Amino acid sequence: MPKKGHALNDSAGQRAKYFQLFSKAWRNHCEETFENLNNKGAETQLRREINLATTGCYSIKEMNQTTDFEAVMLELAIRSEDLYWINRLSSAAERRIKWVIEKQFIPDLEFLKKEPVSYSYIAGIAAQAKYPIDLNDCPAELFVRVLQMVDTHIRRLAKEQGIELIDLPSGYFRRGLPPTEAKAKFQHDHHHHVTHSHNGESVHA
Question: Model pTM?
Fold first, then answer.
């Protein structure tokens, strides 16, 4: 259940920063998905999805002024490519970005490619764009560029296979489910696509 009873709304300054950054994230989302920028219903839905996935709260009014605020601002910074906030939350940003790759992008790629995927696959995508970087020692602002390239690659693969983004493993995170529950529900719903490794070979249940 979402958390309740906190009070981020006590800080008008934090609220203003939150909505300013969300507006940038919403514009980026519309550019990527061709969503109507004036679709207030879709805008509200995205905002609630981000809030719930990052803090466990539906509304900013339910969040606290420290950990919740940092978590949601970091997610919005990544989505809006805001280097000021990424740098301000740099250590947290690097952890968050690596979490996104490990818990969302790699499972998406494994589902789409029907084979195990490692960090070397991600590094290969980065290298194609002249980013031959060590993903274990990468500045957050550069890591964001890698995230964008991998996200574009995933969207292209999904489109080629006629798969909606919401039906990918990361889609279960977008619905606001906690990581463990999201993974379990995805595997239950798509058990025939789950990739297992046996003696170094890819096996599909």
Answer: 0.55
